What we know:
By secondary structure, the chain is mainly β. The chain has one domain (about 5-220). The protein has strands spanning about 5-10, 20, 25-30, 35-40, 50-55, 60-65, 80-85, 95-105, 105-110, 115-120, 125-130, 140-150, 150-160, 165-170, 175-180, 185-190, 195-200, 210-215, 220. The strands form 3 sheets. Strands 2, 4, 6, 7, 12, 13, 15, 16 and 17 form a 9-stranded antiparallel sheet that branches. β18 and β19 form a beta hairpin. The relative contact order is 0.27.
Amino acid sequence: MxxxxxxxxxxxxxxxxxxxxxxxxxxxSTDSPTIYTNVFQKSHIADSDDGQxxxxxxxxxxxxxxxxxxDLKAGTNVQTSEKKEVIIGDYTTPASIVxxxxxxxxGDLDDPVPSTENNSPPGGFVIKTAGFKYPTEDNFCIGIGTxxxxxxxxxxxxxxxxxxxYNIFPVTKFYVTPAGSYEPGDIIDVKAIGQSHxxxxxxxxxxxxxxxxxxxxxxxxxxx
Length: 224
């Protein structure tokens, strides 16, 4: 499966590490959950002049679940407890449906099963939660994850409610930003970051994007 690639040329004059996170996915349900996006890759420190940071983003999509003893807010680090690779529905392929359960203070995912109809939901997959006592004391969450650097890292998560169906629609829009103190798994507040740049592969026909990080602290399409 082809991956997406983001290459950042550091022309800022200062050694800089970068990180990448996803645009929030669309989630359809009766719940209307708050969606939290996570840093999922962090680069090495790119040299101050013409150093480069490179990100490779796997196109595989995983349903995930996790718990967090800390409140879900910017800066909280969360890590995937369990993942299941899923299939995104289209006009020829049924979407995956994953059952999520919560018991004994931990979450669990059943193996995916195909939807009974193709294109249901189109461009997405489904997580269905079983019954459990709500709210949970340790913030039981479900969402989308990826595998990077040999680790299972959340892309976007949200609190799960019992007996609820969530239609989840992954996106191919990502943000890059100077990493600062961020680490993979950290929840990030897009609106609070001044130096971020949207990298949108949707409908572009591209699998690689090249970006310059300039000495004014801003990102620009890479110059030839």
